[in-house]
Amino acid sequence: MKNTYYTPSIYDVMCLFEEYNKKFFNGELMLPRFSLIKDKKIIGRFVCGFDENDNVDDPEILISESYEYTDDKLKDVLVHEMIHYYLAETKQDIRMKHGKAFKLLAEDFNLRYGTNIEKTVDDCGMRLVKTKKKGFLSKLFS
Ligand SMILES: [Zn+2]
């Protein structure tokens, strides 16, 4: 699947999450909700609420389905969001910032696992999904 571009399904994202959770986070992260969003500006995002003790509540990972990704790119995007999740869960950073805690962990991941996690996502290894032109019949009937 290297260098093949694809838009993952929720199930794909869930499977990758489980794999990276085991590999990189000792399986410590609880399964969050996953959503695919049509958004060109947001590639990935981690959102959650907090209870009165600042514990993560209702975590959710959003991935843009406006793009197709290579396996490596999707990994970088997903692990980026999982780092936010982990930092929130461990109360190191509950505001999902790209501060010191994020930077340290991202650099550690990049060194140890060969990932390429940055504060921002460049567009290398991803491409916009071509919107299908409506066919003649759907034009007539929509
Ligand atoms: Zn981020």
List the helices and strands and how they pair.
Layout: H1 10-25, E1 33-37, E2 44-50, E3 56-64, E4 67-69, H2 71-89, H3 100-113, E5 126-128, H4 136-141
Parallel strand pairs: 1-3
Antiparallel strand pairs: 2-3, 4-5
Helix pairs in contact: 1-2, 2-3
Bound molecules: zinc ion.
Structure description:
By secondary structure, the protein is α+β, with helices and mostly antiparallel strands. It has a single domain, classed as Metalloproteases ("zincins"), catalytic domain (Zincin-like). 39% of the residues lie in helices and 19% in strands. The chain is built from 4 helices and 5 strands, in the order H-E-E-E-E-H-H-E-H. Helix 2 packs across helix 3. The chain is globular, with a radius of gyration of 17 Å. It binds zinc ion. The site of zinc ion (ZN) has 3 residues, from helix 2.
Features:
142 residues, alpha+beta, Zincin-like, 3-stranded mixed sheet, two-stranded antiparallel ribbon, 4 helices, 19% strand, binds zinc ion
Concise description?
With 142 residues, the protein is an alpha+beta fold. Helix content is 39%, strand content 19%. It is built from four helices and five strands.
